[in-house]
UniProtKB/TrEMBL annotation:
Pfam families found in the cross-reference section: EamA
Compartments, as annotated in UniProt: Membrane
Keywords noted in UniProt: Membrane, Transmembrane, Transmembrane helix
Family: Belongs to the drug/metabolite transporter (DMT) superfamily. Plant drug/metabolite exporter (P-DME) (TC 2.A.7.4) family.
Protein name: WAT1-related protein
Membrane topology: Multi-pass membrane protein
Lineage: Eukaryota, Viridiplantae, Streptophyta, Embryophyta, Tracheophyta
Length: 367
C-alpha cells in the first residue's frame, strides 16, 4: 500500500499544483485589472512567502551553508522567481490566464534545447527518436507563435452564429472571420512574448534545480533562501520600475487575497512541490502536467473573469500539446531503450553471477 501511494503521490501533487497555478493566474489577473501593479504584487508575494518559510531551515536537518551554495540559491531565485514571476505576471496583465497556461507548455521544448546546447542530452539526428524530438520542439514553438499572434473568432460567437445559420436554413448572418495571422492586438502579442520569456526562465530553473538538489538535498531550505533572495531582488526591481508611491498601497479585497494566495500557493506550495517532484521524478516529469492548466485556466477565465475564448488560443494550445507529448514520448522511448541496454550489459557481465550467490557462500569458499 505504501509503495502504491508513493507511486501515485507525485501525480496527485503535480495535478494539484497545476490547478492551483491556474487559480493564481486567474486571481492575479482580476487584481491587476482593478489597478494593482504587477511588480509590487510580486514583491509582496515573495516577501510574505519568505516570512511563512522563515522557520523551515531550523526545523529540519540540512547540510552546512557555504558561499558557493548560497550563490547557487541566489542564482535560482533570480532566474526562477524574480525573472520568471515578473515576466509571467506582466504577460498575464497584457493577455489572459488561458494564454499563460498555453504558453507554459513550451517549457519542455526550451528544456530540451538547453539540454542539447549544454550537452546534457545527446541528440542523434540519424535516429527516428532524435528527429521526433526536433519535430516536437518545432511544433511546440510554432503553436506558441499561433497563440501569440493569432486571435481568430470568438468561440462563443462562432457557435452562436453557427446555430443561427442552422435555425435560419442558411439565411442567417455569416460567421465572423479573423484569418489575419497578425490579427492579435499589440498588448496580446506583448503578453505572449513576456510569457515566453517566463517559460524560458522556468526551463532554466528546472535544470538548475535538479543539479542543485544533487549537491544540496534539502529542498525546503533551497526554497526558503530562494524566496528570501527573490524578495531583495524584487524590491530593487519594483523601486526602479514603479515610480508612483500610491502603487505600493494594497486595496482591501481582491488585492490582499491575490497576494496571500500567491505567497501561499504560488510560492510556498508551488516551489516546494515542484522541488520535491523534481527530486523524485526529475524535471521532465514535472513538465508533463503543463497541459492540465490549459483547460482549468480557460474554464476559470470565462467563468470568473468573463474573458473571451478565441479560436486561435484553442488551435495554438492543441498544437503546443501535440509537440509537447511528441518530445515526452521520444524521451521515454530513449530512456526505455537505454535501460534495456544497461540490463543486457549487466546480465552479460562476469560479475552478474555474484549477485545471485549468497555472500556467506563466497566467504566460505575463500576461507
Amino acid at each position: 500500500m505504501n509503495s502504491r501511494l508513493e507511486g501515485v503521490l507525485p501525480f496527485a501533487v503535480m495535478f494539484t499544483v497545476e490547478c492551483l497555478e491556474s487559480g493564481l493566474t486567474t486571481i492575479s489577473k482580476s487584481a491587476m485589472s482593478k489597478g494593482m501593479n504587477h511588480y509590487v504584487f510580486v514583491f509582496y508575494s515573495t516577501a510574505l512567502a519568505s516570512l511563512i518559510l522563515l522557520p523551515s531551515p531550523f526545523m529540519s536537518a540540512r547540510p552546512p551553508l557555504t558561499f558557493s551554495v548560497l550563490w547557487k540559491f541566489f542564482l535560482l531565485s533570480f532566474i526562477g522567481i524574480t525573472v520568471m514571476m515578473n515576466c509571467a505576471f506582466t504577460g498575464v496583465s497584457y493577455s489572459s490566464p488561458t494564454i499563460a497556461a498555453a504558453m507554459s507548455n513550451i517549457v519542455p521544448a526550451f528544456t530540451f534545447l538547453l539540454s542539447v546546447i549544454f550537452r546534457m542530452e545527446k541528440l542523434d539526428l540519424r535516429s527516428s527518436i532524435g528527429l521526433i524530438k526536433i519535430l516536437g520542439t518545432a511544433v511546440s514553438i510554432s503553436g506558441a507563435l499561433i497563440v501569440t499572434l493569432y486571435n481568430g473568432p470568438s468561440i462563443i460567437a462562432l457557435f452562436s452564429d453557427e446555430f443561427s445559420l442552422l435555425t435560419s436554413n442558411g439565411s442567417g448572418p455569416s460567421i465572423p472571420q479573423s484569418s489575419n495571422l497578425f490579427g492579435a492586438t499589440t498588448d496580446w502579442a506583448l503578453g505572449g512574448l513576456f510569457l515566453a520569456a517566463a517559460s524560458f526562465s522556468l526551463s532554466i530553473w528546472n535544470v538548475l534545480q535538479a543539479a542543485t538538489l544533487k549537491g544540496y538535498p534539502s529542498g525546503i531550505t533551497i526554497v526558503f533562501f530562494s524566496c528570501l533572495f527573490a524578495t531583495i531582488q524584487c524590491a530593487l526591481v519594483s523601486l526602479i520600475a514603479v515610480g508612483d508611491t500610491a502603487a505600493w498601497e494594497l486595496k482591501l479585497g481582491i488585492e490582499y487575497a491575490a497576494v496571500v494566495y500567491s505567497a501561499v500557493f504560488g510560492s510556498v506550495v508551488f516551489y516546494n512541490a515542484e522541488t520535491w517532484c523534481i527530486g523524485k521524478k526529475g524535471p521532465v516529469f514535472v513538465s508533463m502536467f503543463k497541459p492540465v492548466g490549459i483547460a482549468v485556466s480557460a474554464f476559470m477565465s470565462v467563468i470568473f473573469l468573463g474573458d473571451t475564448l478565441y479560436l486561435g488560443s484553442i488551435i495554438g494550445a492543441a498544437i503546443i500539446v501535440c509537440g509537447f507529448y511528441a518530445v515526452i514520448w521520444a524521451q521515454s522511448k530513449e530512456l526505455r531503450s537505454q535501460s534495456e541496454v544497461d540490463g543486457e550489459v549487466l546480465e552479460s557481465s562476469p560479475l552478474a553471477d555474484s549477485h545471485h550467490s549468497p555472500l556467506l557462500h563466497h566467504a566460505t569458499e575463500r576461507a
